[in-house]
DNA sequence: GTGAAAGCGCTAACAA
DNA sequence: TTGTTAGCGCTTTCAC
């Protein structure tokens, strides 16, 4: 067992109150006692017990982060932003891998509550009603990253529709007329429908008719990108470009194209979404619509902490096309 | 403020002691009271406060994980194993991104201690003396993953020397005689020196003389792989294969070779290390020496928890070559 | 089978 | 400037 504040007090010949004051930088002691106490603390190697502290303050200085998978490139960058900002602000973060499983998510929500975290950040998943009910019941501040909800919960995300609109327009501006789309999970109202909407609008603005067979669904993952690319190419012989709703799916498409000996960008141009490390590492390097993932993570903790002060504004983050080597201009 | 055990007790007309017993499945109450109390708990939506509990038990059911970067593919897979196992065992995990920074690591160690975590898992970094001192001072169980130390601290890792030996031998067996190596950080005694040793031994066994100019250093990251490949190729015109000490560096090498229009595996064979997702997603898919990262993560928490019972055995995990498409057999 | 009460390590009145 | 003391929400003797 380690030393307690009592041990320090005794050894320094002061009361625990004084030690506590010194520890918390509260007024009420002489320079002399402060020095003495600090010396004793150093000598003993005393460290305050944050659990005891938390019991009183009702503050644990820890945040809970719920995400679909820590090993997911996308989420892990957001997490890294969260972690950095939390560290700067002296908070700790508990990671909870939901596996996109509702039961597991609920279990975590309960655990986080029991452990009295000061707030929750929820990344990139569909925010179910039951989560909402649980969270409001526990009256914890929460912010959504890269997703949103019908409730009055602040979120941070990019404007998906606009982002895809810009991406597709980028292709259009380079002479592409027959553009396929590898969309996200079918029916996903957050990250799929609005993006398809953006795709449609971009086409429409240049008077190109939308064709259903040009959009194919995946699940944001690599393998689904392979399958989707195959389907797309079989259904559309005239494609000159593909817009992919995630870098991983773009990597899958790239992989499929490579296997088919279809050269990128010479025969087919490709554009991804997210601008994660996989875009950089792709061969050839992937042009992609970038989201400021790291910044979004950082902002989410800032926002979460401000929430305690009553603010509650969502944030639309800017997207930006990262130009690399998978898009070719073709003669118009 | 939520309900406390007191509220439950009052409403159920029993003492807090009884409620506590029921909550903890201790003996000492009738079926009838149990039912009543449970009903009241459900009605009120009462949840025990783990902080208060932790103050008494000196157990928080939370683990601290220190890793160089959460967004690192390698570490994030280990983390995901840790997270899964922890979840199964009803533990939470706090992630600490050390950024490979000693000061930051020490800060985290202190925070983890103050927050009374039950144990620490330290992933893939060099384990400094000062960490050791801090940790032994706080008498916390700790296990090292993918690294080791001169101290009596249990670790989980693969046999790096043997793994590289096998990887290089794999190349040798396929007729390659002039094999370059992209090693890790220069001077790293854990993940670089032993691997170079394995490389040397494999060559030696087939009577090939080792040449210094055939090994080049990186830092395990993508960019360093690009630079290393370039250096290697300039220094060695006859290379037919390259062994890379991480998949990311292999991806970098792949990228460089692509830019130089050197075909893989036709002109140069490549083999990576780790078998992370980047190996699967590479073009062409990367043959690599795989480490069971996820399993290592899982085992680390099991081991950590057993440590409390006094056990202290390290674990060497099996490696296995994942054969994909970057290695070609050449005529002998 | 059940309850009263002490106390985990700390903070925050309230006194002095 | 400093100390005493009452809790924070819970577990755990010890009585009954």
Automatic annotation (TrEMBL), chains A, B:
Gene3D superfamilies: 3.40.50.2300, lambda repressor-like DNA-binding domains
SMART domains, per database record: HTH_LACI
Keyword terms of this UniProt record: DNA-binding, Transcription, Transcription regulation
Ranges where the HTH lacI-type domain occurs: 3-57
Translocase among keywords: no
MF terms (GO), sorted A to Z: DNA-binding transcription factor activity; transcription cis-regulatory region binding
Pfam families: LacI (PF00356), Peripla_BP_3 (PF13377)
Protein name according to UniProt: LacI family transcriptional regulator
